[in-house]
C-alpha cells in the first residue's frame, strides 16, 4: 500500500520523484522497489501531460491574444531547429535529470511540447532524466538516512549515466547509417 501511495505521489506536480523518494526512504521501504515505483510513476504521467500540453498549445495558437506569442516562439525555434533537434533529447535528459525545483516530468513535458519534440523522443528523454534524478535522490536520501557508502552509490550513478549515453549514441549512429544508406540509394 505504501508503494501505491508513493507511485501516486511521484505523479503529483512539483513533488514528483524528488519528494517521493526521500519520503519512501524515511518510511524505511526497500530502496530498489522504491526507486522502480517512483521512476515509473513519475515517467507514466509524462504521456498524458505531453499530449495535453500539445493540445493546449494548439488551442492557444488559434486564440487572438496568445497567437502572437506562440508565433514568435515558433519562429525562434524554427530558426534554430537543427541545433535544437540535435541537442533536444540530451537537453531534456539533463533538465529532468537534475533534481532541482521545477525541473521534473511536468516541466520537461511542457518544454518538449513547446520545442515540438517527437513524442517518442520526449518520453524517452523524460524517462532517462527521471532515472538519473531517481539515482541522485536515492543516493542523497540513503546517504543522509543510513550513511551508505557514497562512493559505491556514485559509481552506480556513473554506470547508469554511461549506459544511457551509450544507448543514445547507438540510436544516433543507427539514424546516421540509415540516412547514409538512403543517400546512397538515391545516388544509384
TrEMBL record:
UniProt KW keywords: Membrane, Transmembrane, Transmembrane helix
- Highest taxon, organism lineage: Bacteria
Question: Which InterPro entries does the UniProt record give?
Answer: Sm_multidrug_ex
Which Pfam families does its entry note?
Answer: Sm_multidrug_ex (PF06695)
Please give the start and end residues of each transmembrane region: 7-26, 32-53, 122-142, 148-168
Query: Under what name is this protein listed?
Result: Small multi-drug export protein
Annotated source species: Terrisporobacter muris
Amino acid at each position: 500500500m505504501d508503494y501505491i501511495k508513493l507511485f501516486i505521489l511521484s505523479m503529483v506536480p512539483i513533488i514528483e520523484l524528488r519528494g517521493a523518494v526521500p519520503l519512501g526512504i524515511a518510511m524505511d521501504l526497500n530502496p530498489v522497489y522504491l526507486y522502480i515505483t517512483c521512476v515509473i510513476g513519475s515517467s507514466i504521467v509524462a504521456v498524458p501531460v505531453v499530449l495535453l500540453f500539445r493540445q493546449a498549445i494548439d488551442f492557444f495558437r488559434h486564440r487572438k491574444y496568445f497567437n502572437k506569442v506562440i508565433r514568435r516562439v515558433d519562429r525562434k525555434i524554427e530558426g534554430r531547429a537543427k541545433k535544437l533537434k540535435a541537442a533536444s533529447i540530451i537537453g531534456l535528459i539533463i533538465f529532468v535529470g537534475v533534481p532541482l525545483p521545477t525541473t521534473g516530468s511536468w516541466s520537461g513535458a511542457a518544454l518538449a511540447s513547446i520545442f515540438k519534440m517527437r513524442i517518442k523522443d520526449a518520453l524517452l528523454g523524460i524517462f532517462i532524466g527521471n532515472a538519473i534524478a531517481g539515482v541522485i535522490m536515492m543516493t542523497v536520501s540513503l546517504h543522509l538516512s543510513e550513511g551508505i557508502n557514497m562512493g559505491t552509490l556514485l559509481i552506480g550513478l556513473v554506470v547508469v549515466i554511461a549506459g544511457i549515453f551509450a544507448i543514445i549514441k547507438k540510436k544516433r549512429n543507427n539514424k546516421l547509417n540509415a540516412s547514409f544508406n538512403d543517400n546512397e540509394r538515391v545516388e544509384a
